């Protein structure tokens, strides 16, 4: 263990904790978007997880078990599990976004407001993950030089020691991939929020379906790649999808209609009447 190893792990957690707040602060200064939208995005994510996590634990896992699917048995089984988990995340999170737009933000449906909602939705996820990373660092620092037998059962000491060794032996660039992944996920949530917003603005639920499918693809790749590919390949795919999601968001930006400064403020008919009245007043005043 070195000072550099501790610093890199603290930096990784710090980026995940602070980056969403800095981006949201910059966005509010640029667009005057309300922090209320950030808070509502946060609430939407938390509400979706209140239902999503129990569904995965008690319903989806049981269904996969009844289907006889085991990720360790075959690539096909892993692919099905990844798709199922991805769809589960997409349905719960994107539906939560849609319901927020429809029933909570009826008057706040501008493009820049959708961006702010996405910052809140993805931002709180990043903050939670960053908090857990910081907590893990604090734990391993507390356990440094301690007798593990004072904290865990004897039959688990060997496993715990192996986990601690793996934690400290992780290369610095691998550690920082956590922050990179959160940045990609934040970009994804910004794009997904703008895509779902189109379901309301265009009155077409196909856009909600697109957001669910896009979310399922991202999470499915994360699950499948985490079990089948090396970490750099998996993270590269996640970064690519996050970048594409952000690009989609800017493609869907509303173009402001140009202001016609030369357009008359009154109709020609009214202008003629005003001219006639003004001319008569001038004549009357001239000839008294």
Q: How many separate domains?
A: 1
Main sheet characteristics: none
Order of helices and strands: HHHHHHHHH
Query: How far is the first residue's CA from the last residue's CA?
Result: 101 Å
| Unreliable residue runs | 256-288
Structural class: mainly alpha
Overall geometric form: globular
Overall description:
Helix content is 80%, strand content 0%. The N and C termini lie far apart (101 Å). It is globular and about 60 Å long. By secondary structure, the protein is mainly alpha-helical. The longest helix has 32 residues, at 35-66. It has nine helices and no strands. It has one domain (3-262). The model is unreliable at 256-288 (pLDDT under 50). Helix 6 (172-201) packs parallel to helix 8.
